[in-house]
Amino acid sequence: MSVDTNNKLSRHLAVGIGSVVFAALLWVAGYHEQRIVGAVPWFLLILVLVIGPTVRLWPKIRRRFSGNFPVNWRSELGIWFAIWSVVHLLFVFQARDWDVIGYLADMSPWAFGSFVAVIIAVALAATSNNRAYDYMGGKAWKWHQTVGTYAIFWLLAVHIYDRAYLRPGFPSDDPIHWLYLLTLVLVVVLQIAAFARVVSHYRETGEYPSGLN
């Protein structure tokens, strides 16, 4: 499975417009702005994370579509995740009357984790391009992006646990809380299944699947 660092305007427009439409649907469903700008980046992150294991489990997907689909969408999805994450952080600062220093000094461990996740997301977005890929080299760039993405995932998973389950209690009567839980489980299950697929391939052939590095 190859990487793709070519950012295309058409894909950026598609992801940007799609995320705005999703935000509008949440607004129509009755969610307020701060919750919307918190939900949109999470679901963009989920899309980034399910692409890899999905292609690993069902390689025919890439043979059916041209242009390295769906791998070639991860860069744009990741960049828009970073954009929406920064917007969410700005909404949090606004809710605290822009007392950024006070917020940082008094934040909970869960909030601190999400704050670190935003910093990592911005760093990944800034290096999600051909220039950074050529500078770092393929293996280092892929390690940097992969480790960073999963660090973000688990930091936000803990944050969601606090905001969606620990404080309001479980089970929740909010549908989006259940979507958070389902998508979190989906990512974990797909990753475990893809890992098992790679190990099985190695045990059968003595080699790892092509594109795995």
UniProtKB/TrEMBL annotation:
Keywords for the protein's UniProt record, in alphabetical order: Membrane, Transmembrane, Transmembrane helix
Transmembrane region(s): 12-30, 36-57, 77-95, 107-126, 147-166, 178-199
Origin: domain of life: Archaea
Name under which the protein is recorded: Sulfoxide reductase heme-binding subunit YedZ
Originating species: Natronosalvus hydrolyticus
Lineage of the organism: Archaea, Methanobacteriati, Methanobacteriota, Stenosarchaea group, Halobacteria
